[in-house]
Amino acid sequence: MSDLDRRTTLADAAIALLGTSGAKGLTHRAVDAQAGLPEGSTSFYCRTRQELLALALQRHAQLDLQDLQADAAQLSQAGLTQARFVETLLGRIADWASPAKLPRLAARFELILMASRDPALAATMARQRTHFVQVTELALRQLGSIHARELAPGLVAVVDGILIDQVHTPGQPLLTREQQRRLLEGVLAG
Predict the structure, then answer these.
(1) Is residue 178 a part of any domain in this protein?
(2) Element (H, E) at 65
(3) What does the pLDDT look like over 39-63, one tens digit per residue?
(4) Does 152 score more than 80 pLDDT?
(5) What is d(CA 64, CA 104) in angstroms, rounded to the nearest whole number?
(6) Assigned domain for 99 exists
(7) Kind and range of the H or E element at 159?
(8) Angle between helix 102-115 and helix 82-96 axes, rounded to 10 deg
(9) Cα torsion for 27, 31, 33, 34, to the nearest 10°?
(10) 76-89: per-residue pLDDT in tens?
(11) How far apart are CA 147 and CA 165, in angstroms?
């Protein structure tokens, strides 16, 4: 296994632990066990908890961006319209809230909460969030929005709000899909 593969395996294990056990469950030894690697492997690549959290955060953002790039490719093929954009967002929300990806989604919010109390992690989180807002702004510009810069941060925040509802009440979200649709359409309408 290459160094890159091992780091990815460790990051994925850290994300899984954050999503199922929370911050308390994230230890170097637990990551080794989750990854199926010899004890000490995590410590070799991430000497500190801070480095381990940064690795998990970077990997999480990478996975989310891969999903969003796949969505963008599908939208590009189908033709970008506001209705398709909203439908794609709803599909992305449903996918991230699916049983298979719910732990990853929970890990996202665990990392956000940890970053609120950790300046170094907060700086990394801010860079990732800025990138997501920029990607959203680009999509809105492609939709023809003249207010893309103003709308993008709000759209990201609304999607995050819908997603946290999915983590808080898995399988029983407060908002139906139709309510989510109307909320997203309202943000896009400005």
Answers:
(1) yes
(2) helix 49-78
(3) 999 999 999 999 999 999 999 999 9
(4) yes
(5) 10
(6) yes
(7) helix 148-168
(8) 90
(9) 130
(10) 888 889 999 999 99
(11) 27
Q: Is residue 22 part of a domain?
A: no
Where does the pLDDT of residue 1 fall: very low under 50, low under 70, confident under 90, or very high at 90 and above? Answer: confident
Residue 106 phi, psi dihedral angles, 5° rounding? -60, -40
Within the chain, how many helices (H) and strands (E) appear?
Answer: 9, 0
- What SS3 class is residue 28? helix
Residue with structure tokens 């989180």?
125
CB-based contact 8:53 (threshold 8 Å): no
- Residue 110: pLDDT over 90: yes
Residue 112 placed within a domain:
yes
When divided into structural domains, the chain yields a total of 1
Global pTM reads: 0.90
With the C-alpha atoms ordered 149, 150, 153, 159, is the resulting torsion angle positive or negative? negative
Residues 6+ apart with CB under 8 A from 29: 39, 42
**Angstrom distance (rounded) from CA 95 to CA 128:** 21
Domain of residue 185: give its range: 56-189
- Residue 172 contacts by C-beta under 8 Å, 6 or more apart in sequence? none
CATH code (residue 135): 1.10.357.10
